[in-house]
Specification:
Elements (H helix, E strand, L loop, with lengths): L1 E2 L8 H24 L4 H18 L12 E2 L6 H10 L4 H24 L1
Parallel strand pairs: 1-2
Amino acid sequence: MMISVQQEAISKEVVDAWYSEWETMRETIHAAHERRDGSAQQFMVEGIEHFEQFIVGGSITETPFSVQSEYELMPINGMERLQFIKARPGQYACYRQLDELYKETKKRCARLRMKK
């Protein structure tokens, strides 16, 4: 069953603030990968949690984030991609994939705002 989006939770202001927080995290993760000191993984875990919290907060649901759930807010193949990222959070490819999920979710929010 599809968990619907909560309109007020995906206002432009809310989404822009969320994405701005990710941009700061993204810079930290990128720098960690350049240092090759293994610290990227912990920053990635924080980025993943930040993403999941937004998906739940932007949805009409009382339950915590679940890979078994279908969220209207989640981009196409988003759950499979997120599981791939969570399995190997220290890998650079997973960082790139998480960045894409953030970008696609931001665009999806804009489309969902226009739809209602």
